[in-house]
Structure formats: C-alpha cells, structure tokens
User: Fold these one by one.
Assistant:
Number 1:
Amino acid sequence: MTATPAAQRVRRLRAADVADLVARLEAGFGATPSLEAMLSNQFLLDALDRGQHPHFVVWPGEEPTAVLYAGSGGTLVPAGAPAAAPALALASERISWRVLVGDAAIAEPLLERAARGLFRRRVSAREQRFMIAGEPAFAVDAPSGLRPARSCDLDRLTAFACNLHVEDRMGPPIARSGRAAIRSRMAASVERGAAWVVERRGQVVAKIDLSLHSPTRGAQIAGVYVDAEWRGAGIATGAVGAITALLLDRGLPGVTLHVRADNGPGVAAYGRAGFTDHGAWTLALR
C-alpha cells in the first residue's frame, strides 16, 4: 500500500544533508542545475549558506522533493513538488508564521490544505509575478539624482516604506508605535549599503532597497516606491535598471524581484528595466 502525501512525514533537515539539499535546490528538484532554478530558490539557498538548516524541514524523509523554511521572523517559504502540500500544511500548523511566499504551484495547495486545519487563521493571499534579470547590459539611462541612501534620508525612507505597506495591500496604515520598527529596518539597510534613493530639487522622491544580497546567490530588489507626484516619469524603470546593472557588473549571477500580478505599470516598468517574467508566486499574510 502506497502512503499518501499527508501520511509521508516531513523531517528536520540534518546538517549532514545540507549539501544534498543545496544541490537539489540549485536544480529546482530536477536533474540539472540552472540559473533560473538557483535564482528561484535564492532565499532558501542563502539561508542554508548562512547555516540556518535547523529552520528547514524536508519531504519526504529520504530523497526529498520538497522543503519548507520557517524563519525566526515569521516568514514561511515552501518549494518543490506540489504533492508535498498536505504534509507541509500539517507542519505549518505548528509554526507561528506571519508571511508565506513561494511558487504558486506549491504555495496555493499548501494554503488550501492549511485552511482546513483545526487551528486555522484567516489568511489573505494574492498572486505575484516572479521576475529575473540575468544580463548585465540594459538600454536604460540611470535617472538623475540616483545615489546610495544616507542616514539623513531616514525620515523620508520610513514614510515611503509605510506608504508602500498600504499601497501594496500588506495591511492597514502602520500606527505610530510601529514606525520605529520600520525606521530601524531602513536604518539597517542604509548601514549595509542596500538602499538607494532618487533625489530631485533637493528632496528624496523615490527609494529602492535590497531584501537579499549574496555574491553567489544574487540579489533581490524590494521596496521600490516613487512619490505620487513623480510617477510616470520613468524613475522606477531607470533606478531599478541602473541598480540591477551595477549588481550584475559586480559579478552577481542575477537579480530578482516580486511584483503584484495586478500591478500592470510595475510589471511593465520592470520589463523595460531588463527583467523577464518567470511565473506566478503567492504571497499570503495572516
């Protein structure tokens, strides 16, 4: 009798099995490593590179074809075979997660299965497009005023991040008490050189930051925001294209980003910046 996916148990990743899982992720659980597979799993690979294997479970126990990462900050990332969804959903019930992001092929059935659980919580999910840039040459001019962010920009960066939280449908407006955490996160991005701004007429009118930067796994652009008065002028396309070209020229293997599927202007802007669409992902919040 063949065990059902739900009956096949997940197990915690052992340190001795990290190299094997890295190889599987680099190949997208297929036969041959590829740049697209590596970049699709760059978050998981970067976590493994940083020694976070205790945060991983794999399915099935031997010869895994799927994985679930549970970060200490409440981020849940599934990857691999959709058949693993029932088992990974059972594992997720024991995790106090806030954000789930992953390839829609496995994330959607995982969420559907988890919604039937006894301790289910209301989840808000939406489709995103996963986009990749892997070529260092772009026919995009950097916008005037593009520069690395500085500590003196923190007030503006914090305001933009709070605005983006609402406009990107991540939740209600952030209360005053929550802004300190946003400011701290932006300060950390500035300190490690992972944030840029566009300045016009002496005022910051746009921001771009990185949620991931790895010499071996590439970078991921996040937090792109342009002040409403300056939209439609090509600032996002130019800034994202210029930063991407800079990162690729430094030798990074590729740059990725996620954008809401219903954000047509954003998808078009990133396409003009050299990014190509590599499929549907799911972002879920609870």
Number 2:
Amino acid sequence: MEAVLRYRMATRMAQRLRAEGRPLPLPALGETLGLRGPVEPILRPLLDGRFVPEGEVGLWEWHYPFPPEGEAVVVLDLETTGLAPGLNEVIELALVRLEGGERRAFQSLVRPLRPPSPFIQRLTGIRTWELEGAPPWEAVLEEAWPLLEGATLVIQNAPFDLAFLRPALEGLGHRLENPVVDTLRLAKKAMQGLRRYGLDALSEALLLPPRAEHRALGDVERTLAVAYEVYYMLTSGRPRPLWELGR
C-alpha cells in the first residue's frame, strides 16, 4: 500500500475517534473507511503510534497533552521575497505560543527595502501596497521577542527560517538559543516511506485542506497540525518533551 494512502486512512480513523470522543471497535473504524467484513487484517497494520490498540481502539492524545506539560512551544513561520538570506528579505512573520493551556498568536507584515517580485506576490497573496505601511523587520522582531523567550521553537524546514531570524535577532542584541524542532525531520522519522516531506505533501497525507496561498499564520497552523500528529506517532504512549524528540 502506498505510504500516503496508508497515512490518509489512519488519519481518517483518528478523525472518527476524535469526533466520537471514545474508543471504538475495529469494525466501526472499518465502516469509516467503507470496509465491510473481516477488517482486522487490513486495519491493524494502519494503527500507528497515535492509537491505543487494546481491545477497542482509542487515542493516546486522550491520555497526555500536546505540548507536554511544563514545556512552552512556539510554532513559527516566515514569508520572504526569495530563498537567499542576506539578499532576500522577510515580508511576514507569524507565530503561535502554547504554554500551560494558553495560546497566544502573533502576526505582522514586514516592510522590505525592495518590493517583492510578481511571483512572490502571487505565491503569498501579499501585495506591494500592503507592505508599504508595515513596520520594519527590526520593529517586528522586538515586538515578537518576548513570545520567543524560553520556548521550544517548532518550524517546518527550520534551517531556512533560522537563516533569516538568527542574524537579525543578533543584530538587535538577542541570542536565539532556543531548542529547535524541525517538523520536516520529525515527519521523516514518524511517517516513513513518503516521497516528499514538504508542508503540502504532509498536508495531503494528514488530510489537511490544501492551501491557496503561502501566508505565515496559515502555515503556522498547518505546521502545528503536523507537529501534533507526528508527536503522538513518535511518543506512542511514552510522553517526552518536544525538544528531546527534536534533538
């Protein structure tokens, strides 16, 4: 069975369990997939680390939280004018901080020195006129910095975002020494056999809706959804801090 189909089927079962809020027998989960008759030989191999496969099937997320207790987590994303730090510029920053059951979101456009290309405008949906009144990168970082402090950073393809983020923060006198968890790397551990591990490919495998535009806050929410799924795939009833999984 192709890997992406396997994870899509497993995720559909997880979605059914979340909707019900209680464990279900395998035949009921088989109905979710349109299966009849003896379903155990088909469904048992699909039960990845998210599931509690004892008797009726449940979910480990009902037994321990994400993020783990005592760990502050910040999911972060940037939109930029291109792929070259030092040459290209940030045009949007968004993050969500999760800590102690509380959620704080931050999003801001960033005024670049040069306008983004027509391609970037089409890709992100961010128009030049929207950026003209936005604050500069340094001001946005100063406002966001308190939300970053003391948190594990969760980023899809983290080296890219950090290449823009770290030098700019150091220029403001802030050292970014946070633990970093790359959801791309976590997904490779948790979801073996996929051909691609970009955010769109992971979204397809985990039944997340396709994105129309590349916007920072939308990608933060998508990255958070991926992190949630792969966290339980990898912990499988043995809760661990996210920073430890990301080492």
Number 3:
Amino acid sequence: MFIEVMGGVLANSLALLADAVHMVTDAASLALALVAIWVAGKPPSAKRTFGFYRTEVLAALLNALFLWGVAAWVFYEAYQRLQNPPEVRGLIMMSVGAAGLLVNIAAAWVLLRSAGRSLNVRGAFIHVLGDLLGSIGVVVGGVLVITLGWTLADPIFGAAIGLLVLVSSTRLLWDAMHVLMEGTPSQLNLDHLCRRMEQLEGVIGVHDLHVWSLTSDYHVLSAHVTTSASSLEKRDHVLGRLRKVAATEFNIDHVTVQLETSPLECEENHHVSHLGPA
C-alpha cells in the first residue's frame, strides 16, 4: 500500500493512486472485519439474546459504503485527467503495479478458502480481488505508456478500476442489506424445505414458515407444524425429526417449531373443532 502511494506520486499515475487508495480501504476493511469477528464471538446476554452476530453484517455494509466513496473520487480524478492529460512515468507505474499484483495474488489465495462461509471474509476477498484486477490494469497501462506514449491509458485504467470497485461493492451492499432485511438465505429453497418437512411421519402440514440469517453463516427457522401425533412421546419424536432435517439437510442453526394438533384430532377429542385450524 505504501509502495503504491509513493509510486503513484512519483509516476504521477491515477491508476496507481486509485489502486493505492483501494488498498487503504482494504486495510481499514480488514481491520474492521477482524473487530467484527471478535465482537460477534461474544456470548449472548439478557439484553442481546442472539449476541452480536449482526456486527459482521454491519461491518460488511460499512465496507461497501466506504468503497462507493473511493469509486466517486476515482471517477472525478479520471475526468479531470482526461480533460488535461498529465505526464506519466510508465516504467515506475508498470514496476509498482507488478509488485502489487504478486502481493494481491498471495492475499487472495489466503482468503479464498473462507470466502464462501462468511459475508465478512467474502467482503475482504472482493476487496483483494478488485486490487488484483486493478494491479493488472496498472501493469497494462504502464506498458502502453512506455511503448506507445499513450498517457490517456492512465486515467482510462484508473476509471476502470473505479468501476470495478463500484460493481463489487454494490454486490456486497446488496448481500448485507438482504441479511438485515431478514430475507431468506440465497442458498436455501424454501419450497423444498417445506415439502421435506411435510414428508416426515406424523406431519400433516407446515405454515407460517420463516427462515432468515442472523449473519452470513448462522440461519434461523420458525414454523407452525400441524401434527397427527397424540402422545407427548410421539410429539417429541416429530419435533426431533424436524430439527434434525433443518440442521443436517438445510444447514439451519436455530430451529423453533410450534406443534399444533390436527383439526380431525381436535374434533375427535371435542376440542373447539368449530374454530377450524389456526
């Protein structure tokens, strides 16, 4: 990051400076991600019964908004340079870009293993992936400046890096907002889950089914299940099967199920059958 800042100033390169500023936000984002993971690990309390799981999502949201600000600055600077193209030192631009490319390849490889399990780590991975592609742009821009003397390559590739940052941060922002709005996890098919629960012995029907995420890898389910089981032992068996299916087949961590007696059984036992099902 520091090398790119110095290289960007010495080479007078917007592409390098854009990549450097992106790396500054990466450093802040990684620090924020670490703090969020530490806070999310704190135990629940009477005031926060689910603990601090949402801290990770809030950190991802802040990261995305941070990147929007970076993209806006890059676009403005690129416009200014397209109007008045400055002199750019292509050799410094290309050399520093190549060094940044190697660093970003190493960082992306480290984060790749956990990017699919955590929204926060995925956000960090998107940052680094953007840097990696940005470094490629810097190298190509440097080559064009050296070989063709085309100084407009610098603001053009700088704007391309800004666009890359904007696209990646918009996806991250959408994912964070989806969790905060308690949307159904994207990898879960709610109809399939409902059908699977209704296939279990003793289950007549499922309604008021809701699945949402506290954070990217912690999912919660609540549902009302109509059952034909009459004894307490049979009800416990049905409840245990429902929880096992939700946990093992659909990766749901917290399951709350309210069992309801079937209307037919209510009628047989002369229990307010005229009210019908809930």
